[in-house]
């Protein structure tokens, strides 16, 4: 991926620490996301990737460090202020997290009804149709989640994330549990979303193919820190034993 980016940062993380008892997950993680940029965070299981993005959105409080999202210090925000930031930060959960008792249409209506001020100008139905059309699933409007394949559920979940037009999207294993062909389709869809909506993204993934297709940069999270970062090609050619081992394990 070779999208152009700006020099405006939308996420700034400096010396971030997070522990759960004696389990020190993040140990001084530092990272910056620029406007219009897609960055993948790769790491072994249990390395703290999902903890990181939950800290970014304020779902998990940090222990120490600086965490700035869209110009606001997340640890310093009150509940209402945090809710305002969350409208601009979409979160695509690993398991899609659709409401099983709601149709696709009702799933997409939910965030719009919760944030009523976002309904001005364009009707609910029009926004829902536009979001579904952007992921190629307009025909699923009246289907239930149980009638959708795994890949379709991911697409609907992405449409629900996009419906509030977020400035940042956090993807938690977007291709997890999918076959390689469907995973590739989702990866290209992430690129299309970035091109269409100009949103920045942090992509947590174990899928090296997804990282290669979707991102401007790859960050390797190891031992709780930003161990190294660079383009896919740069990291693939690295002679650092930690990087080599990581790429071998992911590709295996």
Low-pLDDT runs: 2-6
Tell me, rounded to a whole number, the average pLDDT: 86
Instruction: Let me know the largest β-sheet.
Output: 6 strands, mixed
Biggest sheet strand order reads 6-7-8-3-9-10
In terms of quaternary structure, the protein is single chain
Number of DSSP-assigned strands? 10
Number of helices: 9
Q: Into which percent range does the helicity of residues fall? A: 25-40%
Please give the alpha-carbon distance between the first and last residues: 23 Å
Cα-atom Rg, whole angstroms?
18 Å
Percentage of residues in DSSP E strands: 25-35%
Overall shape: globular
SSE string, helix = H, strand = E?
EEEHEEHEHHHEHEHEEHH
Structural class comes to alpha/beta
Description:
By secondary structure, this protein is α/β, with parallel strands linked by helices. The protein is 37% helix and 25% strand. The protein contains nine helices and ten strands. The protein has helices at 49-56, 79-87, 104-114, 124-134, 150-162, 180-197, 208-214, 232-236, 241-251, and strands spanning 9-20, 23-34, 38-42, 64-69, 72-73, 89-92, 168-172, 200-204, 217-222, 225-230. Strands 6-7-8-3-9-10 form a six-stranded mixed beta sheet, with helices on both faces. A four-stranded antiparallel beta sheet has the order 2-1-4-5, with helices on one face. A hairpin with a 2-residue loop joins β9 and β10. α5 (150-162) runs parallel beside α6 (180-197) and α6 packs parallel to α7 (208-214). Residues 2-6 have low confidence and may be disordered.
